[in-house]
């Protein structure tokens, strides 16, 4: 074995203690984000229409609602009473809900919403490059924990097997 079990144990403990808080925050925010649909305000209902305008018209009307920022994402209306959802690339992270004729049903700011804040904490984005660096370091630390854990397990296993071989 390249490293002694004692060295691997010290490395394992040090890394584990070093990344504990960051990994805990990431795990908790990830667990809460798993239920983001239950946390969010329900989307508005759209009237049931026989025919819908082209998607380009829906996008153009959504973009006209905001400050002229382009649309970044679109969620299609999959049910008759569901609204189209268009996300705009503006500072407020605006969400525009439209019916099949392109009429605006509701607009929401996504920037200050709970799930958006939790996502920014989860990715480290809330704290800028330093926060993102911490999240990357924690992820790499988890890889190091797995590697050192396997190394310690193999070391113990070899020691047990060597002990059995001598006893025979």
TrEMBL record:
Sorted UniProt keywords: Membrane, Transmembrane, Transmembrane helix
A Pfam family it matches: PepSY_TM
Keyword Cytoplasm: no
Transmembrane segments: 12-35, 126-150
Stated name of the protein: PepSY-associated TM helix
Species for this entry: Enhygromyxa salina
């Amino acid at each position: 074995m390249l490293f002694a079990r004692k060295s691997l144990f010290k490395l394992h403990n040090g890394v584990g203690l070093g990344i504990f808080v960051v990994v805990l925050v990431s795990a908790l925010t990830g667990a809460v984000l798993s239920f983001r649909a239950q946390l969010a305000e329900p989307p508005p209902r759209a009237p049931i229409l026989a025919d819908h305008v082209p998607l380009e018209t829906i996008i153009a009307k959504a973009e006209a609602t905001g400050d002229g920022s382009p649309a970044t994402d679109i969620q299609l209306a999959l049910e008759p009473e569901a609204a189209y959802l268009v996300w705009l690339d503006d500072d407020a992270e605006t969400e525009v809900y439209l019916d099949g004729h392109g009429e605006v049903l509701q607009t929401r700011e996504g920037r200050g919403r709970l799930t958006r804040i939790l996502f920014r904490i989860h990715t480290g984005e809330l704290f800028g490059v330093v926060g993102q660096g911490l999240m990357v370091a924690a992820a790499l630390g988890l890889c190091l924990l797995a590697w050192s854990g396997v190394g310690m397990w193999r070391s113990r296993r070899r020691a047990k097997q060597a002990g059995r071989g001598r006893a025979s």
